[in-house]
Amino acid sequence: MTKKIENMLFAAWAAAFTATMGSLYFSEVREFEPCELCWYQRIFMYPLVVILFIAVIKKDAKAAMYSAVLSGIGGCISIYHYSIQKIDALSNTAPACGRVPCTGEYINWAGFITIPFLALTAFTFIFIVSLVILKQSKGATHS
């Protein structure tokens, strides 16, 4: 494995770790109760911390396949969640989400940065880095 791929695996792990710590900060320190869609996003983000950490330690670029799948699914959930927060036509038809409405915005920095937006940013970064790792590691085996 090249040093570049190692660094990309570490960057993907760092993004997953930061997103996980951020979500725990919002729920445990700021005491923002997660809505149902936030829980689904956590279900796809939290394992990435472990999977990518093991990949970094073992120098296993093949783990990028798992991180691409998990981050892709999590990203789709984030897109839906962000859409029902920001698009009025969708927020009016959004199903009830449990005790905490999924359309609620605990934070709204600069008028567009919400918790699902932050999750989407992390999922997108991890997804793109995972695809690049897969492409580069495939190219390295054929060289």
Summarize the structure.
With 143 residues, this protein is an all-alpha fold.
Helical content stands at over 70%
What's the multimeric state? Answer: single chain
CATH topology: Bromodomain-like
CATH class: Mainly Alpha
Q: Could you say which structural class the secondary elements and strand pairing correspond to? A: mainly alpha
Overall number of strands: 0
Per CATH, which architecture? Up-down Bundle
Global shape: elongated
List segments where confidence is low: pLDDT < 50 over at least 5 consecutive residues: none
Main β-sheet description: none
End-to-end Cα distance, whole Å, is 12 Å
Which terms summarize this structure?
Bromodomain-like, elongated, 143 residues, mainly alpha
Description of the molecule:
With 143 residues, this protein is mainly α. The protein has a single domain, classed as Bromodomain-like (Up-down Bundle), CATH 1.20.1550. It is built from 5 helices and no strands. The chain has helices at 3-29, 36-58, 64-86, 88-91, 115-142. α1 runs antiparallel to α2, α1 runs antiparallel to α5 (115-142) and α3 (64-86) runs antiparallel to α5 (115-142).
Topology:
Blueprint: H1 3-29, H2 36-58, H3 64-86, H4 88-91, H5 115-142
